[in-house]
Amino acid sequence: SLRMILELNRLIRIAACVCQGKKMVYMTVNDSQQEDEDL
């Protein structure tokens, strides 16, 4: 049904946002680790 498709689209969008957020956090952690190694 159309409602199920809309619900799936919403979940996919939320999942994509979460994945993007985790990726950004992961990259930020990597950057800070590299800075620590330089010290």
Automatic annotation (TrEMBL):
The subcellular location is: Nucleus
**Main location as per UniProt:** nucleus
- Every copy of the Transcriptional activator Zfx/Zfy domain together lies at 20-39
Name the domain of life this protein comes from.
Answer: Eukaryota
Q: Which UniProt keywords apply?
A: DNA-binding, Metal-binding, Nucleus, Repeat, Transcription, Transcription regulation, Zinc, Zinc-finger
Report what the protein is called.
Answer: Zinc finger protein Y-linked
Protein species of origin: Potamochoerus larvatus
Lineage of the species this protein comes from = Eukaryota, Metazoa, Chordata, Craniata, Vertebrata
